[in-house]
Amino acid sequence: MLILEKRPSPSRFWQAATPVLAVALTMVAGGIMFALLGKDPVAAIRTIFWDPLFGEFAWYLRGQLLVKAGPLILIAVGLSLGFRAGIWNIGAEGQYIMGAICGAGAGLAFYPDGGWFVFPLMVMAGALGGWAWAMIPAILKTRFNTNEILVSLMLVYVAQTILSKAATGFLRNPEGAGFPGSRNLSRWQPGSNPELIAGSGMHWGVVAAFIAVIFTYILLQRHILGFQIKLAGQAPRAARFAGVSPARLVVLCLGISGGLAGLAGLFEVAGPAGQISIDFASGYGFTAIIVAFLGRLNPFGILLAGLLMALTYVGGEMASTNLRLPSAAIQAFQGMLLFFLLAVDLLSNYRVRFLLAKKVA
Amino acid sequence: MDMFGGINPAVLIASLMAASVPIMLAAIGELVVEKSGVLNLGVEGMMIMGAVCGFVTAVGTGSAVLGFLGGAAGAMAMALVFAVLTQVLLANQVATGLALTLFGLGLSSLIGQGYVGIKPPPTGAVPFGPLADIPVIGRILFSHDPIVYLSIAAIAAVWAVLRFTRTGLILRAVGESHDAAHALGYKVTRIRVLAILFGGAMAGLGGAYVSLVRVPQWTDGITSGAGWIALAIVVFAAWKPWRVLIGAYLFGGITVLQLNLQAAGARIPVEYLSMSPYLITILVLVLMSADRARAAMNAPAALGKNFHASR
Fold first, then answer.
1. Please, are residues B39 and B301 in contact by the beta-carbon 8 Å criterion?
2. With 70 as the cut, is the pLDDT of residue B292 above it?
3. Which of A19, A36, A130, B184 could be A95's S-S partner, Cβ–Cβ 3.0 to 4.6 Å?
4. Which chain B residue's Cα is nearest to A346?
5. Interface-testing mutation among B85, B229, B278, B311, with chain A (most A C-beta atoms within 10 A)
């Protein structure tokens, strides 16, 4: 008979090992899913996980890896702070969209003139847009005790309608022959976010992601706010006795994650995406939730998890062109990864004991 | 009977009743789940799996009835995953619910790939005969498909079970204090798993209603947040079944009115109209949660907490 025994403290070994185990299990289950779709599972897994790194076109795809990982890491690092404190910002997708709209709008206000100041201004507007969008659930939570999960999520749908309004209305390219979509920022030098080293995929958003990882690490390890976040998540009552203000934490955590999601949106619209379009929102805000958990809510873990998740995007795209694997399969695959991670997480908090029946009696 | 610029009130009320069915079914299911002390945020994922499974079954078999059963079964399978993860493997309920939604959105679009642009078999109205011909009242009360009546019956049944039966009492006990219920000898985990499966079946029916009756076709992300609105309605209803009905009609009404205004060419831009259901959900959440003492009193005490029997 199997018995679960709670560990006095989470096992360090299993905390590091469970993400690896979850990835392995996902590969097996994903392989079964691909086989059910009538594809060669080994080829599919190799195309997704091996070819982007070491295959024929790896020189190009490695850069794409950074392009995809940048926004995921930036958003996930912000989300992880809140998740640690038990503050669930699920609306990063909306904050990402609003960051992109505000940033692009601030830049395009100066079109076609503009100088060195345009891009920094856009960065600030992007962060501010995401921050402001996250402040709505934060203030409603602190003032009216409203559930931040539901409010931040509803705001994603609102942001999506604003996005389609922006693409077809107030940000539409006047020279675009009536087609939806804004002017292309990546072709307008003052407002573009180009690759810093040609062919590397490294743009300012990726740099910002790395900086965010380092800052969050320092915040969590060395700063009183990091301590308060950890305390609020692990022992809410103790945190209140220690003078941690829950309302202040909600505002700070949602604000930081909203600002970072807004930044991710701005860097995306000024760089890889190039313009505000109806299909601009790509689900990074939701995938970042998986990245945050996969990285164990640890900044450096998130860095690795973001790169891994980017691999499934880049490899998944390859698999969809080379093997005709439906792109939705990758989304299901990513969801599966989160399932397995949550399932094997049991091992870090509980000890599984085999008990013989006679011992129980 | 023409008022409000071409909008007929009787038709409006009748279509409001149909529009609220998906969220009503999903919300009454989630109410039972939450009453047992489990917070399943995966309603949207279960609904969309119900929508796609229901659609595929209905198209495959040519029967809408089998379609609804298929939808319920598909969503129950998702609910089972949630139940195993949170009840057996003791995973975090919030994270697992989110995973369920993310996975459901991907898997549903995968399953539904060959089904875009197909029309499902029709779900006929219940033949009430001459009753349906009564002016106004006939249109409002006797012109619907069976699922509309089923959803109202589900509200009544859940209300009666929770209030008058031993089963309901045990369910509420488990949701209020799993430790006390466990000490009394009730199988906390088993009761919660059953509640989660019931919630899944209801969400699946709701999802199937979207793809078979409301829209009726398959597109990716067809439920567009209905599952989340259902979760909000449970809060709005303060965990009381009849108030789920009121909440669902309120939201169904907003949706229908919004669509009618769009069709009637109202001077409000379409985008603002289509974001109104979400904005009003937020507004309602604010109004319902503002009174901290009352909001806390109504929610099941063990909501969202995992149960682990130490021997």
1. no
2. no
3. A130
4. B89
5. B278
* Residue A59 clears pLDDT 50, i.e. is over it: yes
Tell me: cis bond preceding A112? Omega within 30 of 0 counts: yes
Q: Give the amino acid at B280.
A: I
Q: Any idea what the Cα angle at residue A16 is, between residues A14 and A20, rounded to 5°?
A: 95
Burial class (CB in 10 A: 0-12, 13-18, 19+), A324: exposed
A197: closest CA of chain B, how far (Å)? 35
CA-to-CA distance for B224 and B261, rounded, in angstroms? 20
pLDDT for the residue numbered B294 = 64
Instruction: Write the CB contacts of B39 (distance below 8 Å, at least 6 apart in sequence).
Output: B33, B93, B94, B97, B303, B304
The dihedrals phi and psi of B251, each to the nearest 5 degrees, come to -75, -35
- Does A6 sit within 8 Å of B228, measured CB to CB? no
Positive or negative, the CA dihedral B21, B26, B31, B32 is positive
Tell me: the pLDDT tens digits for A191-209? Answer: 787 777 777 778 888 999 9
Interface contact B290-A144, CB threshold 8 A: yes
- DSSP state letter for B125: P
- Tell me B273's DSSP state: H
Using an 8 Å CB-CB cutoff, list chain B residues near A286: 102
3-state DSSP assignment of residue A349: helix
Query: Residue B1: what pLDDT?
Result: 42
**Residue B208 main-chain phi, psi, to 5 deg:** -65, -35
Alpha helices in chain B (DSSP H): 9-19, 21-35, 43-61, 64-83, 93-111, 137-141, 146-164, 166-176, 178-183, 188-209, 226-236, 241-263, 270-289, 292-298
Name chain A contacts of B230, Cβ cutoff 8 Å: none
pLDDT tens profile A75-106:
999 999 999 998 899 999 999 999 999 999 98
Tens digits of per-residue pLDDT, B94-112?
A: 889 988 998 999 999 999 9
Please determine, for residue A310, whether its predicted confidence score (pLDDT) is greater than 60: yes
Rg of chain B taking only CA atoms, in angstroms: 20
A278 Cβ contact list (under 8 Å, min separation 6):
A163, A164, A167, A168, A180, A181
Give helix B241-263 / helix B146-164 axis angle, nearest 10°. 150
**Which chain B residues are closer than 8 Å to A350 by Cβ?**
90, 308
Chain B nearest CA to A308, separation (Å): 17
pLDDT reported for residue A58: 78
Cross-chain residue pair B232–A90, CB shorter than 8 Å:
no
Token code pair at residue A8: 């006095």
pLDDT at B293 over 70: no
* Tens of pLDDT, residues A141-184: 998 888 888 899 899 999 999 998 888 888 887 777 777 888 88
Q: Do A157 and B91 touch (CB under 8 A)?
A: no
Question: What are the residues whose beta carbons fall under 8 Å from the beta carbon of B295, sequence distance 6 or more?
Answer: A145, B235, B238, B288, B289
Positive or negative CA dihedral for A294, A297, A298, A299?
positive
Chain A residues with CB under 8 Å of B232 CB are 150, 154
Counting every residue, how long is chain B? 311
Chain A contacts of B281, Cβ < 8 Å? 150, 154
> Is the confidence at residue A355, as pLDDT, over 70?
no
Indicate if the pLDDT at residue B295 is higher than 70.
no
Position A317 confidence tier, pLDDT thresholds 50, 70, 90: confident
Does the structure show a pLDDT above 80 at B210? yes
ipTM field: 0.85
Q: Measure the CA–CA gap between A230 and A195, rounded to whole angstroms.
A: 36
